[in-house]
Each structure stands twice: as C-alpha cells, then as structure tokens.
Design brief:
With 65 residues, this protein is mainly alpha-helical. The protein has one domain (4-64). Helices cover 43% and strands 0% of the residues. The structure holds zinc ion. Residues 11, 19-21, 48, 50-51 line the site of zinc ion.
Length: 65
C-alpha cells in the first residue's frame, strides 16, 4: 500500500497506552496492540517526528528509564 513510510515509523505510547501523535484515536491504539503500528519502548527507538515533538520531558525521562 501507499502507507509504507508511515508504517515504518516507530511511535511512542503515553502512560495511558495511547499513541502519542494520535492520542484520541482508539483505532490507533488497537492497531498498536495488534502490531500494525510499530511502537518503541525506548526514546531512541522512536522515529515518528510527531511523537518526538509531542513527548513531554517527563515522558522522555520515563522512556529512558
Ligand atoms: Zn507517532
């Protein structure tokens, strides 16, 4: 599909398990759970620019452990 680049981006999940760049989209959460949306547990693995832009300092710290 035409969606390859988006699919390759690794997104961050917030503390509620929502996709950071798509916080109100339950469908995105479902896709992340299914593995259709790649997610990263570590900050350095996040490649989605929107997620990186939206992560708060607290979230960044939490992801770094
Ligand atoms: Zn994202």
């Amino acid at each position: 599909m035409a969606d390859r680049r988006t699919r390759r981006d690794r997104h961050a999940l917030d503390e509620d398990g929502m996709v950071v760049c798509n916080p109100r989209d339950r469908e995105a959460v479902h896709r992340a759970e299914q593995g259709d949306i790649p997610t990263a547990e570590r900050l350095e693995d996040v490649t989605c620019r929107k997620c990186l832009d939206r992560l708060t300092p607290e979230q960044r710290r939490a992801m770094r452990g």
